[in-house]
Fold:
Amino acid sequence: MEGVGENDREQHSSGGPQRRRERQGKSPRRRRDVKRPQRQQEEKEERERPLLPRQPVISEPSTHNSESSDSSAKRRDGCRRPHFLHGPYPATHFGPKACILPNPTSVMHIQDPASQRLTWSKPPVNVLVIKKIRDESLLEPFKQLCRFLIEEKQLVVYVEKKVEEDATLSKDEAFGSIRNQLCTFREGYDDISDCIDLIICLGGDGTLLYASSLFQGSVPPVMAFHLGSLGFLTPFKFESYKTEVAKVFEGNAAIILRSRLKVKVVKDISHVQEAAQHYKAEENGLVPHSHMDSEAGKITLQLQVLNEVVVDRGPSSYLSNVDLYLDGRLITSVQGDGVIVSTPTGSTAYAAAAGASMIHPNVPAIMVTPICPHSLSFRPIVVPAGVELMIMLSPGARNTAWVSFDGRKRQEIQHGDSIKITTSCYPVPSICCHDLVYDWFESLAECLHWNIRKKQTRLMDVTDSSDTEN
Structure:
């Protein structure tokens, strides 16, 4: 110990103030190096997560691998693990010694929007073409696209069976050879989630919502052409479809990850049986049995929602009265026509019509918007993505409520039933025409006419009266 003290005194005496300033300038670098193995381990786990066959990935720079210490893992296990799926990057540092506690259960993290580029681990083979139903104006673009994909690109094209059975397509003899090569499926009966590499939508925003509903897990990239009425989510023009599709197949296309909501509806079996006696399964909007789990007299319906979950009063003339919980705590009661829980993508749909703000799809958040609340101070709110919202009928509610998911599968909610909503870890990768900022603001201006007014005329070169007085 004495030798150590003498050595320290020698360094202080020989180095002087200049040596101390150099040592102080280097110490923060050493502190950052201590945290680097922990950050590298988390990036290693992120890269080593298995991908689906031919599943596109977001290109990111590669880093070196290292191992994390056992002590940090013990500290993580002893703390309450947060369930936020979005948030600051887990390895973010605050000053020389503070950082966010590493979360091994995190699924997604925020990255620079400009770095969100699509690439292919393997060349795409199977393409799903979704066409707007009962719109004869889309038959010609549909035939052109299918012919291009099959004859020129040598790809396998999947379509819905009722699209392939269209009477007009059956009468077209020139399209007969292409029609015989189409692979068909039926919604609710055939599972195509593991064999589709790319989705191409022809129509309006409803086609993109329908494509999202077909994939309850990982979603292939979606390329949407504007051939519908509004087209807020469809940035591509069909006039240049060959060039645009070829660019997507080459990779390195801008992409926006549209977050979805994971919805779990827990209902009493007796309620479902009573509803089945009055309505058919399709009319009542019941979810197919593949999405049901029966346990302890309860039925759990699980869905992935792209736009919003709407809870309303249905046909009743009474006000809707539901309780809203956030992470198990009662936040407020909604008395009015209902409540909307939406994603940022859905913020420009029903939520915007109900008075909510419009949020860019790249912002990790969940919006809660009341519908005609009977309270002057009930404003729409935005909560962090990843929190769990739960909606239940209030004990004193005079009537039941009704819930719908992206405008579909509408069903009744009674006392004791619950609706649990949180951020899904399976977003919809939507391919951008230009980039994720330009496309969104262009849609605001073109589709919703956001902040568009008659321009103010410029002043003529006439001296103002106030200037002459001075």
